[in-house]
């Protein structure tokens, strides 16, 4: 026996509509357990697909704090945007592997 909370259902609908609107084609190629992020300058962003486990790493959390300071919750690409150079990001994720 189960029941659904109205707010949970509304949140799921909102997430689906945002996902469909912002990343209709690209969301299909993100495997379960991974996350798409955009890295670089606003005019020249590159998309990376990273494991969710990176979110627990202190060095990655520092990047997330920088993203929050710069963009808040309004990410221009429609997905998580990380404000660092592509080279710095590649160096960081190579150390996390």
Question: What does this molecule look like?
Answer:
- A hairpin with a 2-residue loop joins strand 1 and strand 2 (44-51).
- This protein has helices at 6-23, 58-71, 86-96, and strands at 34-41, 44-51, 80-82.
- It is globular, with a radius of gyration of 15 Å.
- With 97 residues, it is of the alpha+beta class.
- It has a three-stranded mixed sheet with strand order 2-1-3.
- The termini are far apart.
- It has three helices and three strands, in the order H-E-E-H-E-H.
- Helices cover 44% and strands 20% of the residues.
Pick out its properties.
single chain; 97 residues; alpha+beta; three-stranded mixed sheet; 3 helices; 44% helix; globular
Shape: globular
The DSSP helix count reads 3
Helix content: 40-55%
What would the average pLDDT be, to the nearest integer? 75
Strand content: 15-25%
Biggest sheet overview: 3 strands, mixed
Low-confidence stretches: none
What is the H-and-E element order?
HEEHEH
Cα radius of gyration in angstroms:
15 Å
**Intertermini distance:** 42 Å
Largest sheet, spatial ordering of strands: 2-1-3
Number of strands: 3
Class of secondary structure makeup: alpha+beta
Can you describe this structure in just a few lines?
This protein has 97 residues and is of the alpha+beta class. It has helices spanning 6-23, 58-71, 86-96; strands at 34-41, 44-51, 80-82.
């Amino acid at each position: 026996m189960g029941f659904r909370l109205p707010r949970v259902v509304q949140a799921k609908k909102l997430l689906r509509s945002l996902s469909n609107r912002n990343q209709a084609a690209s969301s299909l190629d993100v495997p379960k357990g991974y996350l798409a992020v955009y890295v670089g300058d606003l005019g020249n962003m590159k998309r990376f697909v990273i494991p969710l486990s990176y979110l627990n790493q202190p060095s990655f959390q520092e990047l997330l704090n920088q993203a929050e300071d710069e963009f808040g919750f309004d990410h221009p690409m429609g997905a998580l945007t990380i404000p660092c150079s592509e080279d710095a990001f590649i160096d960081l994720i190579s150390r996390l592997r």
